[in-house]
């Protein structure tokens, strides 16, 4: 397996991201937020090709409950690795890089949400030291891109997990 390089991307990387991972609206939005200083998009590359990503959400959480219990805590979101490369440590490497970036920025705690039916992701997060935040399920929304170009926002619930960033 070629080595994995994880780095912050820019708008210049958008064509490669979309060609490999799709989601033009998502990546355009996250790059716009990054440009405004509200987050950071980290992407894993193998052989110069994007194979996974995570977004460091540095602005206040969208969910009131998360803002109330975790004010000012950054969130990690949208961790993904190409299906054919899952289980090879790429997701772990992306998460470790994201946590390192947050430590360098002075953060001591990080949070993330995981869908109630995404057991594989939940197992990864538990292996990495994330624990349930203790406030039950969180009401959120999930965006679905429809074939006609519209976006549908659907109610969703997730577990919120937290991790102390020490060291």
Quick synopsis:
With 167 residues, the protein is of the alpha+beta class. The chain is built from five helices and eight strands; from the N terminus they run E-H-H-E-E-H-E-H-E-H-E-E-E. The mean pLDDT is 93.
Commentary on this structure:
This protein has 167 residues and is of the alpha+beta class. The chain has a single domain (4-164), classed as 3-Layer(aba) Sandwich (Aminopeptidase). The protein has helices at residues 14-21, 24-35, 64-69, 90-104, 119-127, and strands at residues 4-8, 39-46, 49-57, 75-81, 109-115, 131-132, 138-145, 151-164. Strands 1, 2, 3, 4, 5, 6, 7 and 8 form an eight-stranded mixed sheet that branches. The longest helix is centred in the middle third of the chain and has 15 residues, at 90-104.
List keywords for this structure.
alpha+beta, eight-stranded mixed sheet, 8 strands
Number of strands: 8
Number of helices: 5
CATH superfamily: Gcn5-related N-acetyltransferase (GNAT)
> Largest sheet, if any?
8 strands, mixed
The parts where pLDDT drops under 50 for at least 5 residues are none
**What gross morphology would you assign?**
globular
User: What is the H/E string?
Assistant: EHHEEHEHEHEEE
The figure for the number of domains is: 1
* Computed Rg: 16 Å
Q: Mean pLDDT across all residues, rounded?
A: 93
Q: How much helical structure, as a percent, in the residues?
A: 25-40%
Strand content: 35-45%
CATH class: Alpha Beta
User: Which structural category fits the helices and strands?
Assistant: alpha+beta
Distance between the first and last residues' Cα: 30 Å
The CATH topology is Aminopeptidase
The CATH architecture is 3-Layer(aba) Sandwich
């Amino acid at each position: 397996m070629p080595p994995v390089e994880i780095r912050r991307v820019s708008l210049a990387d958008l064509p490669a991201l979309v060609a490999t991972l799709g989601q033009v609206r998502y990546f355009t939005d996250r790059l716009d937020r990054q440009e405004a200083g509200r987050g950071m998009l980290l992407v894993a590359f193998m052989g110069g090709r994007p194979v996974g990503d995570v977004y460091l959400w540095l602005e206040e959480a969208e969910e009131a409950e998360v803002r109330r219990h975790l004010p000012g805590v950054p969130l990690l979101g949208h961790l993904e690795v190409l299906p054919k490369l899952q289980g090879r440590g790429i997701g772990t490497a992306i998460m470790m890089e994201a946590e390192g970036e947050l430590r360098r920025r002075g953060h001591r705690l990080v949070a993330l949400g995981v869908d109630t039916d995404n057991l594989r992701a939940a197992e990864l997060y538990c292996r990495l030291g994330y624990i349930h935040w203790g406030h039950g399920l969180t009401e959120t929304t999930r965006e679905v891109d429809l074939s006609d170009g519209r976006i549908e926002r659907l109610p969703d619930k997730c577990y919120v997990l937290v991790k102390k960033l020490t060291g």
